[in-house]
Amino acid sequence: MRGVILYGPPASGKDTVAAALRQLDDRYRQFRRLKAGPGRIAGYRMTTDAELEALRASGCGVVWENRRYGSVYVVDSHGLRRELHDGIPVVHLGQVDAVDAVRDAFPDAQWTVVALTCPRDVAEVRIAQRQTGDTVERLQAWDETEEIESADLTIDTSETRPDRAAELIDQAVKGSVTAPE
């Protein structure tokens, strides 16, 4: 079992790079976290607060949970286990503790952790282009995102094309990383 964790702040390119990975090899599948709350629905499995409470009460369903932008986002054990068996899940995370939680929950999986970065001014432009109306909150989240020291690969998405980023990640997953051009 193999998986990819794309780690980075908002607008660092996680969606774009995940799509490029899928184009490269259809075994890569963006893991759609559970989400309860307002805002964007693309890329999530929408749920309710009551359903999340039941998942929490089960004691074995929540790998990681965080709150941002008035919503709750959950990496669930059942969903991620299914994705690990069906392909190579690409999990989007923005907290170092979340990376550790996913690795700890699935220690038998080979995780490739990729830190995606870009300058803050680039992220600000990308966020504004999304027109989600929450630029201030997303930039605050960008500022609060810790650097991750345990990444297998770091890619600046302002300097590396998505298709090249996907190639580098694929090489890392396969165990033969080359330096970015």
Automatic annotation (TrEMBL):
<protein>
    <submittedName>
        <fullName>Kinase</fullName>
    </submittedName>
</protein>
<dbReference type="GO" id="GO:0016301">
    <property type="term" value="F:kinase activity"/>
</dbReference>
<keyword id="KW-0808">Transferase</keyword>
<keyword id="KW-0418">Kinase</keyword>
<dbReference type="Pfam" id="PF07931">
    <property type="entry name" value="CPT"/>
</dbReference>
<dbReference type="InterPro" id="IPR027417">
    <property type="entry name" value="P-loop_NTPase"/>
</dbReference>
